[in-house]
Amino acid sequence: MVEILWLREALMENKILNNFKYTVLYTSLISILSTACSKSNNNENSPSKDNSILYTNNLKDKDLSMVRSAYENNRRVYFDYKSSDPEVVKYISEQLTGLSINEDENVLLFKENNIPHFISGNKEQLKKYIDLNTNLNSEKTGTLKQNPNTEVSSAKAKVTLIRENLKCEMLKMYGSLYFSDSTELLDYCDGNASVQLNYQLDLIGSKAIAKKDNSESGYSYVTPSGKFLIVTVSPKEDSGSGWKLANKLKHDHSWFQTNAHRFDYLGPFANEYKFSIKLLKNSDDIPVNLSETFPQNINKKETVTETRGFSYGFSGGVSGDLGFNDKGPVGKVGVDLKANVNFTNSRSIIFDTYNYDVENKSSKDLAAWSWNAKVFENLDNYLTGQSSIGAHWDNSWVANINKFSAIHYAQFVPAFQAIFKADKEYIGKTDFEFETSVVAGALLGAVVPNLFWSHYHLFSTSTPIPYLGASDTEQNSRKILKRITINWNSPVFASEQNIELQTATDLFSENYLTVNPNDISSRGKVIIAHSRKDRTQTWGYDNDNYQFKSRSGNNNLCLTIQKESNNIIAEPCTNSNNKKWTFESGLIIPHLMRDHAIGYDENEDESLGEKRKLKLIEINNNEKNLIKFESFKAAY
């Protein structure tokens, strides 16, 4: 990892922030990836590759559009929680990605292949992810470490959990034989234990799709109905460097008189690695539950190779002869809004259990696993010799170092998956906690002579990492966890294809049905606007309820006929008939008024451009003002 010049401190030292609310560092960061961040390398709708950093200070709700523009154009967004209202930062983050990180420090949000990536923590943790390589008054280049193997999808996120400089202080000598007052502690980890885990999140909305079969009912469902959060950690899915206690085991004498009378120690090793994902609910009435966990209980020395597939249903199929791959539609493709299609989301989970038993400890709203070596339960197996006695001149270590491999103390990466399900109608928020810890251990050997031979004794000592302390305050602050908030009302949980509705009547321009970006909170004006390459021009068509749903904000704005004026607006979705539409022959037609369609207000001049109102007009004798559309898979 490369070092950086810390953003906030450097900015303050250079007095840049004194008169500006936002400071943009126009340092030209070199992208490691040459892969396009949308559907196709040749797609004209690909986001621009402006890799500069937007430093945000004192954020307000109204700044959403500015941050959205920066983020969707692949700029890094740095949130300073200490200078902004955390609730505002969470709100903006949830609008962009469907989730937010609960922190009291700093968060860096950026894209890797169009997937939002959250890294949070203090400056020492964050500085490993950005390289400015400059004082801020000169233009130099830097790089952001990226992963070239990440899938392209707007409904994915990566959350990184980092903790460094951890200790594992344990007894250096077992003193109950001759040194009963010996309480000397040794930090076997030298203050350098660490953990880095990348949690891959899939946020999916699904509709139930049935197929005919020979069952009693005549059909069965091939996809479920609901909203799903799938959390995966796996070495095959860019899981991070994992747990590291030390570069090598410490093996030395704590006291030495003769070969027949001595004490030694061996450590550190992880007797148990622990991982959990907890759903936090203040009421059982909240319709979010743990649905599935993997792996189950597995014995030592097993190899697990499994591709975990999850099938989900969408409204909107491909029109024409183009098809899908596992990642969705390929290229710029037309969408048949009346069709349904099902996808499969896949994650590879591959690992060896080595000398650990994998124990699934999940219950109700908690997904939990431990990798348990059970060293303390079988101490005799870790003696160097086959017997607990030896000759006085024997200089063998008491504990057998060959019983341990690097997996016990360096670069241990787990593999697990949990699926949480919310009802399709649920639009609230829930918090999740990702937590990890280790029960670290060391073996303490004692060689004690008698008249004819020496006795070999082996004892254990242990400590949790992190050491939590006694008080609740200490425990809460020292836990290694990441808390996130999932906004189940986000468009990422919609069970419709993301589409853009391009006008087919404008020969020389690229115009789309658009929600005015200043009106996306509760009620918005709908216009025809030039390509903006953002979500104000992204829609989904619910072919069960005949609704066009805007992706511009929370998933609660529907294309609507305004009462009395017949103007076209976007307002919160209900089951009202003025929000129901069909799409036929390129026209957007009210479901119950087949002789009308969306068009321009004939009383307004074409020179008004994007300010022209859209109205519901009669199809007959209004060909000039009717607007025909084509539907395409959206890039945003």
From TrEMBL:
SUPFAM superfamilies: Leukocidin-like, Ricin B-like lectins
GO CC, one annotated term: extracellular region
Record keywords, A-Z: Signal
Keyword Membrane: no
Boundaries of every Ricin B lectin domain copy: 509-586
Gene3D superfamilies linked to this entry: Leukocidin/Hemolysin toxin, cytolysin domain, Leukocidin/porin MspA
Keyword Acyltransferase: no
UniProt organism field: Silvanigrella paludirubra
Any Gene Ontology biological process: cytolysis in another organism
Protein name (record): Uncharacterized protein
Domain Leukocidin/Hemolysin toxin, chain residue ranges per copy: 230-439
